[in-house]
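fwd from M.: "can u put these together and see what the complex looks like"

so here's what she sent:
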Amino acid sequence: MIKRFVFIGCICFFTLQIIHAQSQDSLALDFHFKFNETPLVIGQEFVSKQKDSLKINTFRFYVSDIQLLFADNSTAQIKESHLVDLEMPATQKISLIPNSKKRVKAVVFSIGVDSLASVSGALSGDLDPTKGMYWAWQSGYINMKIEGQSPSCKTRKNQFQFHIGGYLEPNNALRTLTFNPKKSNVIEVSIDLAAFFDEVPLAEVNSVMIPGKRGIQLADISTKMFSVE
Amino acid sequence: MKMLARNIVLVSFTLLICAAFAYKKTTPLYLEVPKDWPEPAYDFSKNPLTEEGFQLGRHLFYDPIISRDSTISCASCHMQATGFTHVDHELSHGIEGKIGTRNSLALINLAWTKDFLWDGGANHLEVQPLNPITNPVEMDETLEHVVAKLQKTEKYPRMFEAAFGTSKITGQLTLKALTQFMLMLKSSNSKYDKVMRHQESFNPSEQKGYALFRKNCASCHTEPLFSSGKFENNGLAVDATLNDFGRMKITNRTEDSLRFKVPTLRNIQFTFPYMHDGRFKTLTEVVKHYNSIQKTKGIPKELSEPMHLSDNDRTDLVAFMKTLTDTEFLYNPRFSYPK
């Protein structure tokens, strides 16, 4: 009987060791949020170059189709979409490849969801329509949602709401980013929301919730928030 | 060590037996495509029809739990006996008696439908229910909250387990179940269908009406579904109290101004009132509209001339339209409130 417990104990121990080793060596995308040089905190007040003081309540976006180019010129692709949510730390690290020691030369990923997903009916996981990232009146995913409050917005409760999306040309809001990370294992992606609000005067632009020209402009601006060390 | 090996064998064997019993088979369901009909637009491979999925969808369809205050179900605006639409209301009403901006569409032969809602805003049957669920004047709820409410019931986790092999309810599975019910709403056994199958014949008035229909209406209300599935401007002046420009809101294209979905004419006798804003109460009024249509901007060439039908012709045309009534569909107990 004791023998059996020791045996099971050993198995558990080795399994934990393996998991631990994997987490150390696995390749991941790690997202950090900031406003200029300050870490971004929900509900905290920030001021943009537009002189808008603002608070962020919601910030969520999809990351899809992650492609990796390694130093040895081999490649890897992770097609699934991940929903990164400022409110949920568990979503802010995307594990890519376990046990990888290869150096990454370039990483490419899309902000948003590709058009195929937007015409495929009800999907599961991060793409489940319960995630609040699906338009009801016009089918298709919201690629990025930024919501908050600013006294500059003469709206109900001084709210601003940006739901950036649209999969049909010419209003396709999907954006693809390419970076060349200097570090090897964990790819640190920093997202500076100041880069967005410095270009969006909240007194004039505070409610964009449909695909269209405005959505496209915001999608373009949103890419400026992302950088990789 | 020998004992351990024996234990492992024993445990695996027990697990295997348990698994075999736990895996209850679902009963497959088939949607038969009537002879000479096109292939369905829906891809069944991603959501195979089962009796359990269909029944779950049927319960969801008739359950007001889907609305914020549990007062409105899908069936509130889509009643079976009237072709699954909201009869006698120009504009459908939802939660707390709030009035919407459109007349609810009939739910008929949806497996053959590509675009949903009057303006085609929904591109897939599975995501169409998100519109009424979240619309503040319809159900004013979120899918996330619907799922949480369903999970807390005694009945639904069990039904999801039976249909999808998991009692963990998700938005995707809720929508897939609703879709299974809607896909089965096939109407193909009207008098018209029986005549086409040489089982019955039209009376002289219906026969004349059919000829008039083929000449004047069939280019948009294409047989056998009685809809081209397209969006057209049918010459109705915009209602200034609604300012609804239809398809243009979705596509942002000016040529889509005042274009609305061409609805099916199946069971049209019972789906009154007619048009996207329910402005006509009777088929006679509808026929009169096309009979004296004014040439306006954006009207398709098929409608550029009024029909100029005589009173007798108009009666015959309406007589034909009534042959599209499928009482078997309207009273099929499989589609009714689940008991």
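replying to her w this: Residues 31 and 184 of chain B are 7 Å apart (CA to CA).
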